[in-house]
Amino acid sequence: MVHLFNAGPAKVPDEVKEQIQSEFFNFAGSGISVIEISHRSPEFTALMNESNVNLREILEIPDNYRILWLAGGATGLFSSIPLNLITSKDDVLDYVVTGTWSKGAAKEAEKYANVNYVVPIPADFTGVPLEESMKFTPGAKYVFYCDNETVNGIEFPHILKTDSTIVCDMSSNFLSRAVDVQKYGAIFAGVQKNVAPAGLGVLIIREDLISADRLHQVPKVWDFKLQDAANSCLNTPNVFSLYVTNLVLKHLMKNGGLKRYSELSRQKSSAIYDIIDDSNGFYACKIDKDARSRMNVTFKLASKDLEAEFVKKAADLKIEGVKGHRSVGGIRASLYNAVTMESVNYLGDFMKSFQKNHE
Ligand code: PMP
User: Fold this and answer.
1) Residues 57, 243, 61, CA angle at the centre, nearest 5°?
2) Which of 81, 148, 167, 243 could form a disulfide with 173 if both were Cys (CB 3.0 to 4.6 A apart)?
């Protein structure tokens, strides 16, 4: 058995994969495989409606929010959100940059809008900015931040404090803790971390923010108003990813919902951070303690050679996916919902014995 710590695409629960396998040739009693079924079929329409109901229940999404499933993943939403929300050339968008992905989102928005950086982009990402250092624009169209920076391993401990409409990228901590949806204008995620196969973005957006009165032309597939009216089926959606999404939503509900997964996330990440903190500097995590990600634990060893050996020895023991992102190096263990405590303990034991063998 492989212990998989991939950052995304990432582990899907074994039980869900078994179900996919068992019904692969016969989706919902149709005699047709889910990868062949029409997105206009009653079976698929039922699945789409059920996913919306399930997600609404899990996140307690109020009635005045719409759920859209869109092509292009989270990167697509970096573009489609400003394109759909900007209504005037004078609109200002506030961006809080805390890592690789929020920086990328801000650069994308600069193509279409006046972007204000709420804090200067730091030379190195090590935490979330202090409240008093953030300079929000009065009357900004929205303020954007990334709840969990997957590459850097930085997670907001709480919702951003601002009076503006919040747009939040939750790609890598989506469904890992309860969220008070009504405090946000929009929440979005690429599903390939905590949910399902890649290529699908989910957007939860307050309905008053979906308007036809936009400054820019919007590509039809990313037109929130059109996609909302078409129940996210304006064009052929990612049927397979939506199918797995619904299975994972049901799996999550059956296994205790967000309350349980949030507690598990805390336990799993603490187990690894404790080993780092008790290693006398053998493992070093530079992220401020209050902003350490529960999803992506990042750390370094004394040299690149030692890190390469760590990754190699881990692979020998069937621990996969722990190499840090190519842009920052080091080690990263992603502990999404489907990663079990057993796998985390296995990784922890390996870390301890690797340290012992190198001291
Ligand atoms: N935001 C975050 C926080 C991410 O981790 C990622 C992907 N790693 C993205 C956005 C981009 O997602 P996608 O690949 O689905 O476009």
Assistant:
1) 20
2) 148
